[in-house]
Design goal:
Two copies of one chain form a homodimer. Chain A is mainly α. Chain A has one domain: Orthogonal Bundle (Arc Repressor Mutant, subunit A), CATH 1.10.10.10. Helices cover about 60% and strands about 10% of the residues of chain A. Chain A is built from seven helices and three strands, in the order H-H-H-E-H-H-E-E-H-H. A three-stranded antiparallel β-sheet of chain A has the order 1-3-2. In chain A, strand 2 and strand 3 form a beta hairpin. The longest helix of chain A is centred in the C-terminal third of the chain and has 19 residues. The N and C termini of chain A lie far apart (about 40 Å). Chains A and B meet through helix 1, helix 2, helix 3, helix 6 and helix 7 of A and helix 1, helix 2, helix 3, helix 6 and helix 7 of B. The first copy, chain A, binds a DNA duplex through helix 5.
Chain lengths: ~140, ~140
DNA sequence: GCTTGTACTTACCTGGAGGTAACTAATGAA
DNA sequence: TTCATTAGTTACCTCCAGGTAAGTACAAGC
C-alpha cells in the first residue's frame, strides 16, 4: 500500500496548534463546504473583477438573498472577499475575491477535479453497497 | 493578480457533468467536511491496519457511537472504507481505509496544511472585521 | 444467575443551515 | 404622487447534524 504522507507526522503537526487554532482551521474548512461558499468564490474568481451583489446573485444560480448575504459576510470576515460600499442611490456594493482566497482555491481545485474524475467509482461503490447491504439487515 | 487556474474552463468542465453527477460531487465533498469524517479517515490512515470499531472510537476523541457508526456507513457506501465482520462473540468488526480514500487524502492534506500555515492571517482578518464592522451597524 | 464486553440501534432533544415571503430606506423617473 | 431599483433585514418554517441515554444479542467468566 503506497503511503506518501506520513500521517503520524501530520497528526503531530495538527496537535502542535492550540485548541483554538485547531478549531479555527476546522471552521474555515467546514465553511468552504457549505452550500454556496465555493460557488460564490468560483464566480468571483471567474469574473476577475468586482461584482455587485445582484450580479453575483444572478451568477450563483438558485441562492437566496439571505444565504448569499450570510456567506459573503463570513467570507469577508475570513478575509477571503472584500466589500466596497458606494454612497449612491440606489445602493451599490461591490464584492471582490482576495489573493488569499485565490491561493486557497488553487488547493481546492485539484480535490474537486479528482472527485469529478472519479465519480464513476463512487457511483459503482454506491451501487454495490445498495445491492449488498439489504442482505445484512435483520428481519423483523 | 496572478491567476493560474482558468476558472471559465473549470466551470465549463463542471457543467459537462450531468446534474446528478454534479450533485454527487458536492455530496462527497460536503461529507468530507462533516464533523468527524476527516478525523476518522486520518486515524485509519495513520493506523495503516484495520481497526476495530472500539479502537477507532478511542482514537477519534469525543465522537459518539451514533455519529461514528453513521460516518462509517457513509464512508463504506462511498467506497472509502471497508467493513469486515467476524462471526464471533463478542462481536468483532474491523474497518480499513481504501486506496481510493488514501488518494483523496493526498489532495485534502495540502489544503489542511495551507490553512494551518495561514491561520494567523485568518485571525488577523477576524480581528480587523470584528473591530471595524460594529461601526457600520445601525443604531436603534 | 448475574455481570462483562462488543457493536450496534432507537428515542428524544437542541442548534443551526437554508428556504420563502414580506418589509425597509432613499431617490430619480413618470 | 407613485413606482422602480438595490441591498439588504426580519419573521417564520422545515430539515438534518449531532449529542445523550438507554436498550439489544450473545456467550464466556465469576
Amino acid at each position: 500500500m503506497k503511503k506518501s504522507i506520513d500521517w503520524a507526522e501530520a497528526n503531530a503537526a495538527c496537535e502542535a496548534l492550540t485548541e483554538q487554532q485547531d478549531s479555527l482551521t476546522r471552521d474555515i474548512v467546514t465553511r468552504l463546504a457549505e452550500k454556496w461558499t465555493l460557488w460564490a468564490l468560483a464566480e468571483l474568481a471567474e469574473a476577475d473583477a468586482p461584482l455587485r451583489f445582484s450580479r453575483l446573485m444572478e451568477r450563483v444560480e438558485g441562492v437566496s438573498q439571505k444565504s448569499l448575504t450570510k456567506v459573503l459576510r463570513q467570507l469577508e470576515r475570513d478575509g477571503l472577499v472584500t466589500r466596497a460600499v458606494f454612497a449612491e442611490v440606489p445602493p451599490r456594493v461591490e464584492y471582490a475575491i482576495t489573493d488569499l482566497a485565490l491561493e486557497m482555491l488553487e488547493l481546492v481545485h485539484p480535490l474537486w477535479q479528482w472527485t469529478t474524475v472519479n465519480i464513476a467509482k463512487f457511483e459503482a461503490a454506491h451501487a454495490t453497497y445498495d445491492h449488498e447491504v439489504p442482505a445484512r439487515v435483520k428481519r423483523a
